[in-house]
UniProtKB/TrEMBL annotation:
It comes from Zestosphaera tikiterensis. GO terms for molecular function: DNA-(apurinic or apyrimidinic site) endonuclease activity; hydrolase activity, hydrolyzing N-glycosyl compounds. Signal peptide: none annotated. InterPro entries: AGOG-like, DNA_glycosylase, HhH_base_excis_C. This is N-glycosylase/DNA lyase.
Length: 288
């Protein structure tokens, strides 16, 4: 059994690095997220209401994927753009997501289809979204699906809803919405040194051995990033994009300066001070 230890000194260091980055810096990271681009394309062609229904429903069955996340959402965009204008209501949106799931997301298919059927019965859970109240949305969808409010897919659907609001220029209330705990977020939780195992594990290769184990403790991961949020003054769901993107680079075992250069070349140059960026990467990769 693995024993986990929180390092509050590291939590403070990571939080201060995010405070230096600021909300605007996090938003610049979000623009590198291909999922945001998918949302923009759907809002442009399908409209805000249809996109909200389609994106949230698909997010809630976005697990055990046959493709990498970026490819999965690109497939969803292509599939949906051709069909979304025939969607007239929430039920039809979920039915379209069921079609996509059968074609491209069919691992554990029966369970995913049951989850989507349950969602159809909970139409009222979208009422908080009409007001941009993501915290209430998370609570209601968790009840609807007999899940936990920190469940990865539940929180991820809130994040994607936030992207819809952001693209549409609408106000979303983000306080109280946790970070979605996936492999990348769990990896950064370890490489940052905010959560440590009983042994002195260092380096991406060694720490990767503990990622799946840590993912079984989502409440711990959520708790740590909520503390980072308090230090930085940035909502956890906004912190997610930098963490997720850097986690992707680390998964390919890229070094710190290599990550910094890649981020600058990807579009952060001129938008985020390079020293602030370098400090953030240093703190997130502290144990590599």
């Amino acid at each position: 059994m693995v024993r986990w230890f929180k390092d509050l000194t590291r939590v403070k260091a990571v939080g201060e690095a995010f405070r230096s980055l600021g909300v605007d810096g996090c938003l610049a990271f979000e623009e590198l997220d291909k999922q945001l681009r998918v949302v923009k394309d759907l809002v442009d062609l399908c409209g805000v209401a249809r996109t909200t229904y389609l994106i949230t429903a698909n997010s809630l069955v976005s697990y055990m994927l046959r493709f990498r996340g970026e490819e999965f959402w690109s497939l969803f965009r292509e599939f949906t753009l051709k069909r979304c204008n025939s969607v007239n209501d929430f039920t039809e949106a979920v039915e379209l997501v069921k079609e996509f799931t059968k074609a491209y997301n069919n691992l554990s298919l029966e369970f995913k289809l049951r989850r989507l059927d349950s969602l159809i019965k909970c139409r009222e859970l979208f009422k908080p979204l009409e007001k941009g109240d993501l915290r209430s949305y998370v609570a209601q969808v968790a009840r609807c699906l007999s899940s936990e409010p920190y469940s990865k897919t539940v929180v991820f659907s809130a994040k994607m809803s936030y992207y819809v609001f952001r693209v549409a220029g609408l106000k979303a209330y983000l306080e109280g919405v946790n970070i979605p705990v996936d492999r990348r977020v769990s990896l950064i939780t370890l490489t940052s040194g905010m959560v440590n195992v009983g042994t002195q594990a260092y380096g991406v290769k060694e720490l990767m051995n503990y990622v799946d184990v840590l993912m079984r403790e989502p409440k711990l991961v959520v708790e740590v990033w909520n503390e980072v949020s308090k230090v930085s003054g940035i909502p956890p769901i906004v912190i997610d994009a930098p963490v997720w993107i850097v986690g992707g680079y680390l998964s390919f075992n890229m070094g710190r300066e290599e990550i910094v250069k890649e981020l600058i070349n990807s579009g952060l140059g001129g938008r985020v001070d390079v020293n602030v960026l370098r400090r953030l990467i240093q703190e997130l990769t502290y144990k590599t």
